[in-house]
Amino acid sequence: MANPNPAEEQAQQVSYLLSSFNTRLRELEERNKMIRERVMLLSQNFIFLKEESSGKLEEMKKQLNKLQTDMDKIKSTVQSLISETDKYTRKSEVLVIERMLKDFQPLEFMRRKDVEELIEKKLAKLKNQDKEEKESPYQRDKNINSNNIY
Question: pLDDT tens, 68-100?
Fold first, then answer.
C-alpha cells in the first residue's frame, strides 16, 4: 500500500488535533460550568449562614445586655443591703444590752410623783386605821354596814 499524499496526511493530523482540541475545550467548558454552579451554591450557602449567624449574634448581644442590666441591678441591691446591715445592731451588742437591762430592771423603778402618791395613800390608810381603833366598836360596826350598802 502506498503512502497517501503528505498534504492529506497533514490534513488528517490537523483534523485529528482540531477534534482533540474541540473535545478538550468542551470538557473544560463543562468543567468550568460545574465549577461556576458550585461557586454559586457555595456563595448562596455562605450568604444564608452569614445572615443566620448575624441574627443569632444580635440575639446573643441582646441577651448579654439584659444580663448585664440584671447584674447591675443585683449589684446595687447587694450594695444597699450591705449598707443597711451596717445600721443594724449585732447579736453581741444586743446580748450586752439585754444583760444590762436584766441588771437594771427599769420596771421596778418609780417616778418621784408615784412614790409621793404611794406614801400619801399609806399615810391615809394608817390614819384611817388609827381612827377606827379610837372609835367605839358600835361605831365601827355602823361604818362597816354603811360601806356595805352600796
Answer: 999 999 999 999 988 888 777 788 888 888 888
Which residues span the domain enclosing 95? 9-109
Residue 3 lies in a domain: no
| 149: pLDDT strictly greater than 60 | no
Distances (CA, A) of 82 to 76, 77, 90, 102: 10, 9, 14, 32
Q: Give a yes or no: residue 48 inside a domain.
A: yes
Looking at the domain assignment, is residue 149 inside a domain?
yes
Contacts of 3 (CB under 8 A, 6+ apart): 9
What predicted TM-score, i.e. pTM, was given to this entire model?
Answer: 0.41
